[in-house]
Amino acid sequence: MVRPFCRTRERRVAAPPLASAPAARAILALLPDVRSCGGGSGRTTASSERWFRVRARTTSFTTQTAAPASGALDRWTLDRIARPLAGAKLRLQLWDGHGLTLSSGPPVATIHIRDRRTLLRIAIRPELGFGEAYTDGRVEVQGDLVAALEQIARALARQRTPAPVRLAPNDERRSRHNVHTHYDLGNDFYRLWLDEALLYTCAYYERPDVSLEAAQRAKLEHVCRKLRLRPGQTVVEAGCGWGALALYMAREYGVKVRAYNISTNQLAWAREEARRQGLDDRVTFIDGDYRTIDGSADAFVSVGMLEHVGPDHYDDLGRVIDRVLDPVHGRGLLHFIGRNSPMVLSEWIRRYVFPGAHPPALSEVLPGVFESRQLSILDVENLRLHYALTLKAWLERFEQHVDQIRVMFDERFVRTWRLYLAGSQAAFLAGDMQLFQVTFARPMANDLPWTRRYLYEGADA
Length: 461
Prior knowledge:
alpha/beta, single chain, elongated, Nonspecific Lipid-transfer Protein, Chain A, 11 strands, 2 domains
């Protein structure tokens, strides 16, 4: 049962006469059209300047002026914002100190809203308004940011219901733009906080106290064992990142790999690493969208790409897998962020961090990718808590290098990525996000392990 608010300063404020429709319209008219805030691509081509900047539409960090005392309408608006968060261990506080404590227990953090304009933005479009305000310094979180965001995620999860997902299709042109926007921010940036192999996907923690590097190596091994690779076999990888998995498969398992990617910076790094490690005769990195994959392969693998495919193109991915996999013994693995039921990703994340992204529910993926091609699902593993630990390590390293990152970009970039990493960790801790590994094979493949022991004691099949 949701507990009532515990108010530390005043009772719930009824809507004052000022909140009449004409007055409310007059106040909202003072705001810029929130639909237009932050739209467009807005990024330049130089890696250190690719972060699009929010300019005249918000106050700067250094030019904020003192806001007037909050009034009855402000307090009523705060009350409306707080209602969906009932029971969360948080305190919401306005610029003049008026606040609401949302549970009877001590709050893990206090969320400070610095001005009336910000309050109204959050009331109108909560996810987008909060994200933009935090980025611009108009909202501050005093206390544990991850814990605060986890409290919000847990409170909102009780009210969410599955909904049809309608997004702009990620055709090849849009997909290249989306990938360029996020992954081509510069290899120097990612090297500051990823592991030494630049793996930007969920690690596999055999124990929660191991290092990020050890957990990422364990992830590579875990994937390879699930694929049951043998020397001389061929593998196709869709969305290869900086090439760590392709290089590991070739080096440790003696397979030949064709790895596809559409990120310019990642491909350049991967090709150089292949030459440096003497693996360029066994690994070919190809500048190509997953829809262009051809040839044949014993195994198909994709780690962290499905989130960028989009529901309108799951059938395209299934068609590609069916086209390249060995018709009898072919098998594969998809590793992707997902949801328990179909829901749209946060508007703020899609606008400022991952354009075009959609973490799908299994019910969205299965028909187009697997069922339509008669592919048999062998196993599904959920590594949700492993991703929470991965993000914790990334955020810690990000903060260790925050001064360098601020010089490379700016303060808004730092706050955007801090919120993105912290919010993602909170989403996995709260169960709002999942991390699925789905292994599959051709329906007539009978050379299958009898148990899962081969994953932990060495391949036995």
